[in-house]
Amino acid sequence: MSVRELVVLGTASQVPTRHRNHNGYLLRWDGEGLLFDPGEGTQRQMLRAGVAAHDIHRICVTHFHGDHSLGLAGVIQRINLDQVPHPVTAHYPRSGQRFFERLRYSTAYRETVAITEAPVDADGPLATAASYRLETARLSHPVESYGYRLVEPDGRRMLPDRLAAHGIGGPDVGRIQREGAIGGVSLDDVSEVRRGQRFAFVMDTRLCEGVHALAEGADLLVIESTFLDEDERLAVDHGHLTAGQAARVARDAGVRHLVLTHFSQRYSEPQEFERQARAAGFDGELTVAHDLLRIPVPKRR
Question: 105, 147, 182, 270: least buried by Cβ within 10 Å?
Fold first, then answer.
């Protein structure tokens, strides 16, 4: 049975706290695992969350600030130590190539796994897998930063009442799906489009076109809300979002489940992030993330 869920490994911005590790997020998508922004301490958080190196197929880094990338060295070495049996692909801004190489080879170890480097330097499709297309869009931060988005291809939903009306049943249901028509009855006559699921990951950024493009129609949006609304000037100055800004993005994009994360250590009451997000008009499912949380991707519409 396929599993689609987000495992939250860390939720702190810049400085970890007693209760929040630096960033780290593993998306389980059917048989693949995509690790986003492994900050310092990610390898230990993986152990606490029950995530193995074997679960990682892609590593996606938004940018090369330490709280989003210092865990790369340990994660890559663990992938090699455990001799992960499949190739692993790493995506990151091309402008940070030197940082990726320094982290990948920061100490001596034995390389046993093929890690493919696939840097990002433009908006658009990045990779295609069996059950998703990985896309990226440029964000607005003091260093080059990209967000990521998974889009499942649309499928078809068979409609039992229409199948029955046309006298189609048994093996013929599979046949019309394969061939597109049977005896003058087309697939469109007995089915409808089933929209594919969408996941978006938006980290350190001001409001910009890329934020809205990534969030559009997402079933699950993971987005930074480093600051509360009263500190919006700080957010703009440092290239971040507030809780209200993130919620308005989700509201306008038709997001089904909003996950707020990447919190400044200056705040001790996470409930205030939820209150401000609701005040901004987002009425979908809302989670203020904490470390080691598991969040299922919403079921298809």
Answer: 105
User: Does residue 2 register a pLDDT over 80?
Assistant: no
Confidence (pLDDT) at 1: 47
**Residue 256: pLDDT band with limits 50, 70, 90:** very high
Q: Which two tokens stand for residue 126?
A: 């990045």
Instruction: Check: CB of residue 224 under 8 Å from CB of residue 13.
Output: yes
pLDDT at 178: 92
Edge-to-edge strands, sheet with 88-91: 115-117, 88-91, 58-60, 32-36, 24-29, 4-10, 294-296
Write the burial class of residue 123 (CB in 10 Å: 0-12 exposed, 13-18 middle, 19+ buried).
middle
Q: Which one from 37, 55, 67, 154 is the annotated catalytic residue?
A: 67
- Annotation marks residue 67 as catalytic: yes
Return d(Cα 256, Cα 199) in angstroms, integer. 10
pLDDT tens sequence across 114-138: 899 999 999 999 999 999 999 999 9
Number of other CB atoms surrounding residue 139 within 10 Å: 25
Q: What is the edge-to-edge ordering of all strands in the sheet holding 220-224?
A: 124-128, 133-138, 146-151, 198-202, 220-224, 257-261, 285-288
Residues in the chain: 301
Query: What is the number of other CB atoms lying within 10 angstroms of the CB of residue 277?
Result: 26
Question: What phi and psi, each to the nearest 5 degrees, are found at residue 88?
Answer: -125, 135
- Average pLDDT for the chain: 96
